[in-house]
Amino acid sequence: MSATVVDDPTVVTVPPSLDMVSVVGVNDEFIRVLEASLDADLLVRGNEVRITGTPDDVRLAAAVLAEMVAILRTGQGMTPDVVARLVAMTRQAEDEATERPADVLTANILSHRGKTIRPKTLNQKRYVDAIDRHTVVFGIGPAGTGKTYLAMAKAVQALQTKQVNRIILTRPAIEAGERLGFLPGTLSDKIDPYLRPLYDALHDMVNPDSIPKLMTNGVIEVAPLAYMRGRTLNDAFIVLDEAQNTSMEQMKMFLTRLGFGSKVVVTGDITQIDLPGGQRSGLKEVRGILEGVDDIAFCMLTSADVVRHALVGRIVAAYDAYESAQATLGDVLAPRRYARASGGRR
Questions:
Q1: H helices within the chain, ranges in order?
Q2: Containing H/E element for 242?
Q3: Which of 94, 125, 313, 335 has the smallest CB count inside 10 Å?
Q4: How confident is the model over 55-92, as pLDDT tens digits?
Q5: Are 65 and 120 in contact (CB under 8 A)?
């Protein structure tokens, strides 16, 4: 039994099996999130929530409450952040006729030390589903959208379920440039800072005490992209991170390492390219080359999929708006600049 809208369509009744505090939040904090997100007022009386406001927002609020109840009945907790995401996902699901938000937020990938890793947005769920269905998947989007983290969770899941025999995690050290030689220590010590984010994510998913043994045995390998050249990678789950910093040649080299029984996930943010000398990014160009090729999927994530601090999403959105405005301004001013440069002749 889930939440139902009864006689008055603005009244949602919560099943008596659920504690109302888990639905409305301590001091009604979840209700306040809903009211702040929607043009609606919610009044709690017993196990009923009375909703008033514009028809569309009343309907959306009732739908969100139903999704909250469905999630709570699985034993998963609720937070103000989850409620805010539910509003966005429910609105998106209505517009696009996609899967239920409750199905997204209860799709478990991996559990470790009491922590469950699962997608938190519709686009993240589509990304995870694409990894299940395709051999090569590109996850492209801004910082904080879970591209690498979810890919690594799927890699660990594949290893645990014996779909693959090993995990290979790699990223280019191109941003180091000539500075690499000035860092202290061996080559491994110099490269380690650029691979540290992969180690950090790995520690969230695998018992830290077992990682050295797994790496020694070659079950888990964390290495710079340059180490992939000349290899054929069979029965492996391979994650290439920060792929926007690969050249065209490096991207081709990496993709052609694919062997039998392997899966590849490539992640990156094409708005943060650090390649020197105006080199073309392999990630930026690859979609035009490979889109439409069978068994390859491209998943685009946006600022709406940022799952770090809420402010990160707003920062990314602000930069996107600024860059879009600059591009538009450039298109408008370009003819004027050309006219000045050519002495007024067009």
A1: 20-24, 29-37, 55-72, 80-96, 101-105, 122-133, 147-160, 187-205, 211-216, 248-255, 282-290, 310-341
A2: none
A3: 335
A4: 889 999 999 999 999 999 998 889 998 999 899 888 88
A5: no
Strand-strand pairing, 40-45 and 48-53: antiparallel
Q: How many other CB atoms are there within 10 angstroms of residue 253's CB atom?
A: 18
Distance CA 260, CA 251 (A): 19
CA distance 146 to 282: 21
Task: Say which amino acid occupies 270.
Answer: I
CB 166 within 8 A of CB 221: yes
Distance CA 179, CA 156 (A): 33
Q: 277 is written with which tokens? A: 């000398």
Give the Cβ contact number of residue 59 at 10 Å. 19
| Closest listed residue to residue 56, CA positions, set 8, 5, 94, 93 | 94
Beta bridge partners of 50: 11, 43
pTM value is 0.80
Please state the φ and ψ torsions of residue 69, each to the nearest 5 degrees: -65, -45
Instruction: Residue 150: count other Cβ atoms within 10 Å of its Cβ.
Output: 27
The 10s digit of each residue's pLDDT in 176-192 is 444 555 555 555 565 66
Pairing of strands 4-5, 263-268: unpaired
Distance separating alpha carbons of residues 150 and 131, to the nearest angstrom: 10
